[in-house]
């Protein structure tokens, strides 16, 4: 029979607990008789706990070390791939061209006799090299056709013309094909970087330090070489039609939109026509607000295109031989500055160095368009940062009583620096039928708004003010006055997370008397670029949060600055217009179908009536 601990003579035994072998008192953490010790955890349990904690810390450190090692392996992969990319000769040549070294002389061996051909990659040559596939085929076919005709006595060609054709074919066309191959290698390399990111072999953030310089040289106007707007637009066109979709995706990861040249001879043709939606008008004015960022020579070229008869892709109407003659004629005239002489009566460029304010204006038919340049350099932000409100005044005509209200001091001073020039040309172009349209993006939108206040006050009726990503410009007194005066003639577009329309803040806490507001109708592009003509704060707020989260996940940074870029406004408006045109086509088809159905039904009913009449005779 088992004896209790007390019966066996152990002090402090627990009544009813037997310990025949005396183990209870020796268990860890238990006192004599199995009761708890009064001195806390035993050293053994403490050591076990510390051991588990140490193991957990070691495990976490090991996991972090593994993650860091994997990250460094990815970074090393990105570095190695970027190094291999730069070392490929065709790509190195393209990088030299992009890196402000278009003056460099390149040498290539002639495939027939091995002689070295030397050339400089000027913008005209680069644009020809990046023509569409159809244009290159047309060129090749035309050159061959002219050579065949030269050998036929029935089709005499002058020796001088034949010499020019052979020289172009033997040297210039070969140089263009070589440049084209170089750019294909370069764009193929950029596509490979996007494949690395899509395959999760590297992240966009890990790859960024090694390629962002080249991305900016192409995608960011601030980094491009001066005078190269025509080449860059042609490169963007080439990226689109050649199907380099991953290159476009790669640029968008870093906040840049590869937008092919949006300009057409059909732009501004019917801008004054009132339609159910004014998207076509808004798109035309957005193109002007986008173009004003380009260099002056290219800006004049596109304005010349707008002033031409409505015929896009003129080369498609030419025969192969005509196309060759046209290209060679242009080739021979390279270097001759056309300037603005031929469009001087319909085009003016304004550049005020003291306030760093640029704008251009042109007239097409009865329409006069005034577009202001927006924020591009840090110097422009000095205008933006002058946020004090100032009583609105008019410099060009002191006899006019200005409206009561205050406007942003920096924007007013920038407008007043070009005010007299604008008024001079508007008076010169003024006719009873003339319609005036004012537009701008960012700071340019603010200047357009202040200009509209001034022009309306002086009796120049503004048919429409369209701004994109515009900051606030005036106090509520001026806002209410302009809304009453112009109503729906003021339209303001804002892209998802564009931060600029939120500045200056409506109320500045340390100066509560400065209360800013926005004028006109508000139109909003959501995260997916879809146009919302009416939207409410409770709809926009979650959309903006979603857009910011998506941007952080894809590019590692919010899209508050990227959404401000004018490229996104033009692209979104083009999508909205395409959608409206498609809906109009479907509606027209439905009307036709419904009309045919009704007519067919009427015919059937008339046929049944005629068939029923003989039966009535019986």
Features:
15 strands, 618 residues, 8-stranded mixed sheet, 52% helix, single chain, globular, disordered C terminus, alpha/beta, 12% strand
Number of helices: 18
Largest sheet: 8 strands, mixed
Shape from CA axes? globular
Number of strands: 15
Give the structural class.
alpha/beta
Percentage of residues in DSSP E strands: 5-15%
Average pLDDT taken over every residue: 83
Strand order of the largest sheet: 3-4-5-8-9-11-14-15
N-C termini distance: 126 Å
Radius of gyration, in Å, reads 37 Å
Short overview:
The protein is of the alpha/beta class.
How is this structure best described in words?
This protein is an alpha/beta fold and 618 residues long. Helix content is 52%, strand content 12%. The protein is built from 18 helices and 15 strands. It has helices at 43-87, 89-98, 123-129, 133-150, 159-198, 204-219, 229-241, 245-253, 279-291, 296-307, 320-332, 378-384, 409-416, 419-429, 443-457, 476-486, 537-555, 566-617, and strands at residues 106-109, 116-119, 347-352, 357-364, 367-372, 389-391, 406-408, 435-441, 462-468, 474-475, 490-495, 507-508, 511-517, 521-525, 531-532. A hairpin with a 2-residue loop joins strand 4 (357-364) and strand 5. Helix 2 packs across helix 5 (159-198), helix 5 (159-198) crosses helix 8 (245-253) and helix 13 (409-416) crosses helix 15. Residues 1-17 and 611-618 have low confidence and may be disordered.
